[in-house]
Design a protein that fits this description.
The complex is a heterodimer of chains A (110) and B (114).
Chain A lengths: L3 E4 L2 E5 L4 E7 L6 E7 L6 E7 L4 E4 L2 E6 L4 E6 L8 E9 L2 E4 L3 E6 L1
Parallel strand pairs in A: 2-11
Antiparallel strand pairs in A: 1-3, 3-8, 4-5, 4-9, 6-7, 7-8, 9-10, 9-11
Chain B lengths: L3 E4 L2 E4 L5 E7 L5 E7 L5 E9 L2 E4 L6 E3 L9 E3 L8 E8 L9 E2 L3 E5 L1
Classes of the chains: A mainly beta (110), B mainly beta (114).
């Protein structure tokens, strides 16, 4: 199956700074890469996704980039706010399964 | 739409007891799945279903059973609970049978096995 690795496991930034979370995947057949945000006591919620035929996608302060050759994709959050504090998961889909990274706990310091 | 609804929210079991975690979705999604979430290990797939009457194993299926008699419901059964099954369980659904669209998650069931 697929192996998705995520770094860093924890990240602290000052409010207004940018945050970057990186993921790599092992199987070049993976073709869809969503990012999820999980707040305490809740289920993960989709924040942005990218398909393998696209190199970059942006939605307001959030962007995702995909490098198929290197098999890595990254989440970029600009102008961070305290409400961005949460755990973020990357994932890749292969066949009928999603494979998740181990999560990044982001803390935005006011 | 309620989305994905999981019950119960919390459960404590003794070793050897059995129980069923319920999951229902009202989005007419074909794909449904169960994950467990443990600290430092992300989300691991237990079982999934691409439609009514069809189920398959994920990464960590041992100790769990599922069935899919309707499009809406996908219960997860623990036949004989073990302390290693202490975890937070999430049900998730997706439109279509191929995974090129996102998962919609419920809010989880926190299970403790003593």
């Amino acid at each position: 199956g697929e192996n998705v690795e995520q770094h860093p496991s924890t990240l602290s930034v000052q409010e207004g700074d940018s945050a970057v979370i990186k993921c790599t995947y092992s199987d070049s057949a993976s073709n869809y890469f969503p990012w999820y945000k999980q707040e305490l006591g809740k289920g993960p919620q989709l924040i942005i996704d990218i398909r393998s035929n696209v190199g970059e996608k942006k939605d307001q302060r959030i962007a995702v980039t995909l490098n198929k050759t290197a098999k890595h994709f990254s989440l970029h959050i600009t102008e961070t706010q305290p409400e961005d504090s949460a755990v973020y998961f990357c994932a890749g889909s292969l066949g009928n399964q999603f494979y998740f990274g181990t999560g990044t706990s982001l803390t935005v310091i006011p | 739409n309620a989305g994905v609804t999981q019950t119960p929210k919390f459960q404590v079991l003794k070793t050897g007891q059995s129980m069923t975690l319920q999951c229902a979705q009202d989005m007419n999604h074909e794909y449904m799945s169960w994950y467990r979430q443990d600290p430092g290990m992300g989300l691991r797939l237990i079982h999934y279903s691409v439609g009514a009457g069809i189920t398959d194993q994920g990464e960590v299926p041992n100790g769990y059973n599922v069935s899919r008699s309707t499009t809406e419901d996908f219960p997860l059964r623990l036949l004989s609970a073990a302390p290693s099954q202490t975890s937070v369980y999430f049900c998730a659904s997706s439109s279509g049978q191929t995974l090129n669209s996102p998962l919609h998650f419920g809010n989880g069931t926190r299970l403790t096995v003593t």
